[in-house]
Amino acid sequence: GAGVSQSPSNKVTEKGKDVELRCDPISGHTALYWYRQSLGQGLEFLIYFQGNSAPDKSGLPSDRFSAERTGGSVSTLTIQRTQQEDSAVYLCASSLAHNNEQFFGPGTRLTVL
Amino acid sequence: QKEVEQNSGPLSVPEGAIASLNCTYSDRGSQSFFWYRQYSGKSPELIMSIYSNGDKEDGRFTAQLNKASQYVSLLIRDSQPSDSATYLCAVIPWDQGGKLIFGQGTELSVKP
Question: How far apart are CA A69 and CA A46, in angstroms?
Fold first, then answer.
């Protein structure tokens, strides 16, 4: 079946602009996770959804970052007033339930000029 | 902050050899453990999960878990050049809602 999909695959933006990143999880997966991987850095957790609610937002680096999930499916990560340090690959993963195996999408490479 | 540590690498092995990748974790209550493979420029790909002490085999891959020692390892038998990648150890701590805590990864190079 189809895996996790993310769009866009690449996004170049100017400092100060807002960006939206989209994630389509595997059908039937109730848990959805956002991570970030910066050049030379490890994978960093951002936020977790169970259904449409976000029990854990502890990884969001600032209040410029927000995310929502609708219909228990698609999720959008929004970064307002982007900064150069936001440049990274943003990865989405989904799992049947929390604590289960997570499957990653191809990621969105964000470059802030 | 929960921690997961891996050998920094790079690890170089000849084709056909066994590659051994190691990982330790700090949260004794952790219950779920995973190995991901990440090729350069690609996203992580799940290759093994393990939840109980002992060995778990899948093809050329064997994951080993020792909760008492807080240690997880991955063995790759008959290593192939296509196995050359970064291997990420990931742990779900007991009270963290399912989020993965990743190690920094070990770069494996399999030489023909």
Answer: 14
- Using pLDDT thresholds of 50, 70 and 90, give the confidence band for residue B78: very high
In whole angstroms, what is the distance from residue B6 CA to residue B21 CA? 8
Q: Is the pLDDT of residue B86 over 90?
A: yes
pLDDT of B2 reads: 52
C-alpha to C-alpha distance for A105 and A35, rounded to whole angstroms: 11
Please compute, for residue B84, the number of CA atoms within 13 A of its CA located in the half-sphere on the CB side: 12
Pairing relationship of beta strands A65-69 and A10-13 according to DSSP bridges: unpaired
CB–CB of B100 and A98 under 8 A?
A: no
Going by their DSSP bridges, the two strands A88-95 and A103-104 should be labelled as antiparallel
DSSP one-letter string for B38-84? E-TTS--EEEEEE-SSEEEEETTEEEEEETTTTEEEEEESS--GGG-
Do A103 and B97 make contact, defined as CB atoms within 8 angstroms?
A: no
Closest-CA residue to A18 (of A72, A69, A59, A76): A76
Asked whether the predicted pLDDT for residue B95 surpasses 80, the reply is no
Q: What angle do CA B7, B11, B13 make, to 5 degrees?
A: 145
Q: Percentage of chain A surpassing pLDDT 90?
A: 84
The reply to whether residue B99 touches residue A43, judged by beta carbons under 8 angstroms, is no
Q: Is the dihedral of CA A26, A32, A38, A41 positive or negative?
A: negative
Neighbours of A60 (CB within 10 A): 19
